[in-house]
What does this fold into?
Amino acid sequence: DSGVTQTPKHLITATGQRVTLRCSPRSGDLSVYWYQQSLDQGLQFLIQYYNGEERAKGNILERFSAQQFPDLHSELNLSSLELGDSALYFCASSVEPGTEAFFGQGTRLTVV
Amino acid sequence: DAKTTQPPSMDCAEGRAANLPCNHSTISGNEYVYWYRQIHSQGPQYIIHGLKNNETNEMASLIITEDRKSSTLILPHATLRDTAVYYCIVRVAPRGAGGTSYGKLTFGQGTILTVHP
It folds into this structure.
């Protein structure tokens, strides 16, 4: 158990819908990262937050957004969902940017 | 971050040492070598990291060549539960070491390690 909690574990939704994925980082970790893993793209970095502020952006679509709250948990919002958004979404946390990151077990999103 | 090259797959017999190579010939002086693994769609798991000295922890050993252009992850006594995709990642130093890393990890395709009974 990495100490990073992601909910829900599984999510099935229809195209065009909006979902929110939640991540609780390890106790004491200030930095949160979101990754997407699809069969054809591998693990792709989406976005990073540190102590509530956005620090880095990767290949995150405009339909996707994220935030980190004062209690340090983070949410990834995915809207106008398409079939191609079906993937595993992982959250990771670290004490600060650059230190080793610990990953949650992921949310498996299926868009039908 | 420097690019890494890993063999797509490797096999290992249970109980034997698994030696996973990684080439990172364009590594810069302030870049660390990190290893993560992912067991069948679970979240990636941190294994070990190093700058230029060899490192060992309870999971593995990391051997980095003197010119730092390549490294080897060693699992001393592989078990069936070590079957996973192993990722070698190079990135700039953590902030605490004077770097300016934002911390993101750039995953390649990794090496699929299969441990056989």
